[in-house]
Amino acid sequence: ISITGKQLKLLRKLDHYGHQRLQQSNNLDQLWEELKSLKADWFRESLVEETIAALQRLMDGINYINVAGIASFISRTNYLSTLLLDRIASVVIEQIEKIHPFSIFAVILPYSILNYDPPQRNEFFGTCMQCLHSHLGTLDPLMLVFLGFSLATLEYFPEDLLKTIFNIKFLARLDSQLEILPSSLRTRVQFRLMELNRAVCLECPELQIPWFHDRFCQQQYNKDIGSMNGAQLQISKMLAEVLGGINCVKTSLLSPYYHTIEFECILDKRKKPIPYGSHNITLGKLPGMYWESNIQIVGSSLPPGAERIAFEFLDSKAFCRNIPHIKGKSAMKKRHLEILGYRVIQIPHFEWNSMALSQKDARLDYLRERIFGIGKS
């Protein structure tokens, strides 16, 4: 959208008044009423830091009435304020009797998105689940799936919630609800259920909840794993150089539980790259093949002492907006790949695109260091 000079002037004025208003705010209820009524995303975007600063300054006013709304606001900002999240957790623990069960998902969401555990983590999540316990049978199935997934990103797996979700009657109810949803929301719910199913299988095998998303994943990933962006193409070429040839790097793979893996290589016990196609290497299965659901960890198909390495380029969406703190989904993916036997090397965009790595040689050294623990060849 092109903006005229007059419009730009007006936007700057609004921005200026917004900053002033936030700095002068001394009443959280009043401020919150104004924030709730803001519709324009650009306005919120330009004032995020100032808004968080104002909320932190007035956080003693957070209570059972506004806690869910403020938590939702934080989720949308992608801004990690540990002060605010710690305060929200305290309010929930102290005032849980007055908080409606329907608000619990909104309260938990920022912790999941921003990958943050408050100091009283177990008490906080336990209190939230206690509030929900007697309502599990009546709450909206969609909300329960989203809640289960959010808690899974935080490595919190309440058995009563999981047994409610992974139950034939519940899944039938969910299916009938999915039929009437718009396709984009339907797909989102299906993905969240799949990701929750995957997390439970990998992180809570003792619950013996079966993996039942093979067909769904095959349909999704048969379409396309996605194309590589510029940084990923650079990394791919440089990995081939560092590892000794393109036959030592695999690109665009899927894990046995359908995590997308941008690049993979295998090192033998002496830390030497093993070319794909050589003896004793089992390639990752391709999308579209039938996969057994009782998959052994990936490392089991390697020669003794060898390790499989997964690389992931992390763009700005993988981090909180204010600090280089990795968000929940990327943290969970790393955890899962490690359970599956991978060593995971995540390459943050701010390292790869930094001045220190502006030259090709520096980038090659960076990759060598990350893979082999050594610098120049």
Automatic annotation (TrEMBL):
For this protein, what is any one GO molecular function term?
Answer: RNA binding
| Residues in RAP domain copies | 309-369
Gene Ontology CC: one annotated term: ribonucleoprotein granule
State where the protein is found: Mitochondrion
User: For this chain's UniProt record, which GO biological process terms are given?
Assistant: mitochondrial RNA processing; regulation of mitochondrial mRNA stability
Primary location = mitochondrion
SMART domains per UniProt: RAP
What is the designated name of this protein? FAST kinase domains 1
Keywords attached to this Swiss-Prot or TrEMBL record, sorted alphabetically, are: Mitochondrion
What Pfam families does the database record attribute to this sequence?
FAST_1, FAST_2, RAP
Q: Which residues cross the membrane?
A: none
PROSITE patterns linked to this entry? RAP
